[in-house]
Design goal:
This protein is α+β, with helices and mostly antiparallel strands. It has 9 helices and 16 strands. The chain starts with 36 loop residues before the first strand and ends with a strand.
Length: 357
């Protein structure tokens, strides 16, 4: 038996005996204040909730998970955890794939879209009376930011929204391949452009990936037109997968095969005497199909790029030869009479050399 020596209690005159002293109530437990915003996910699988349970800030049940914060914060928490797991254990780590669907739901909501399995509860800001009698609304200023009042701009959110839009296109059209989406200049060359598609431009391990560029100058347009550019480039991607030659003249002339593929993806085309069936418009039913995607993308279109100042040239070419290009693209110059004798084929890409103009 273990014994402990106790110091004797000394009775002070006038002091109450210990047994007669009034009990001092224990301090009430501090209850953490509820966050202004909570994000709730429903309809989850056991694998989803098991994976979320290890991330700080999430409270999970069998099919429901609640995050104490905004959808953007929830998305960042999940993404940060996935990045950490992938760096340490790779993409096949236990629980990693279960978080992909959760991350995609949160990404869609955090950029302005909606998802039937995600609900958000926001604590409304309250009006408080100031010393001069006027009322002012309290609460987080960030919760009241609008598309025109952003405190900071990040390219990551824009690229994420474009990637999400491309993923939605791939969901509806299974043949569309995965690509690397980039944002860059559309006016750095003589021919201004809103976007381009380039097959095999990137390498990921043993897999070659195509590139889709969206010009920063074109981001000034309405969201429907920006999404139309994505569908336009998706049409080129579909033609590449099906090995259909949909353009000529170094990719500037869009033929009727392009028009047919664009119609398949939900676009209407019209012929332009200079670039063929390149001009596209978004059908109403297509806009309805991608309603949530358009809302998400619109939230990200809060900045655009100023055009390049490309200097003109007054130099004239006195050579009678005609500049031609193939799909590689390689360029040659041949006399008009030689070109009229028959087609000249590139030995690399097996396409025909076409006049630039």
């Amino acid at each position: 038996m273990v014994t402990t020596d106790l110091a004797p209690v000394v009775q002070v005159p006038g002091q109450l005996d210990l047994i007669d002293m009034p009990a001092i109530s224990a301090p009430a437990p501090v209850v953490a204040a509820k966050p202004a915003t909570t994000t709730k996910l429903t309809g989850l699988t056991n694998h989803n909730t098991d994976a979320l349970a290890s991330i700080t800030g999430w409270t999970v049940t069998k099919t429901t998970a609640v995050y104490n914060g905004t959808p953007t914060a929830a998305h960042k928490a999940v993404q940060a955890h996935m990045d950490s797991v992938r760096a340490a254990e790779g993409g096949r780590a236990h629980g990693y794939t279960s978080l992909i669907a959760v991350r995609n739901k949160l990404k869609e909501l955090s950029t302005g879209g909606s998802h039937p399995a995600v609900s958000v509860t926001i604590k409304r800001a309250k009006k408080a009376t100031t010393s001069n009698g006027s009322k002012t609304r309290t609460g987080s200023p960030k919760a009241r930011l609008t598309r025109k009042r952003q405190d900071e701009y990040t390219t990551a959110e824009l690229v994420s929204a474009l990637e999400t839009a491309w993923a939605a296109i791939r969901t509806n059209h299974k043949e569309i391949p995965a690509v690397v989406v980039i944002v860059g200049s559309g006016t750095a060359s003589k021919q201004a452009k809103y976007g381009h598609f380039a097959a095999g431009r990137w390498q990921h391990g043993e897999q070659a990936l195509a590139e889709v560029l969206i010009s920063g100058e074109g981001l000034k347009r309405p969201v429907e037109e920006v999404f139309t550019t994505l569908l336009h480039e998706a049409t080129h991607a579909l033609a590449n997968v099906r090995e259909i030659k949909d353009t000529s003249r170094q990719g500037r002339w869009h033929n009727q095969k392009f028009a047919a593929l664009a119609s398949e993806l939900g676009l209407d085309t019209k012929k332009d005497d200079r670039i063929g069936w390149s001009p596209c418009t978004l059908r109403k039913e297509t806009a309805t199909t991608y309603k949530g995607v358009l809302a998400e993308l619109k939230k990200a279109l809060i900045a655009y790029r100023h055009p390049e100042m490309v200097a003109g040239t007054s130099k004239k070419n006195n050579n009678n030869a005609i500049a031609c290009a193939c799909q590689c693209p390689r360029r040659i110059r041949v006399a008009k009479a030689v070109l009229e004798e028959g087609e000249i084929t590139c030995g690399i890409c097996e396409s025909t050399f076409e006049p630039d103009e």
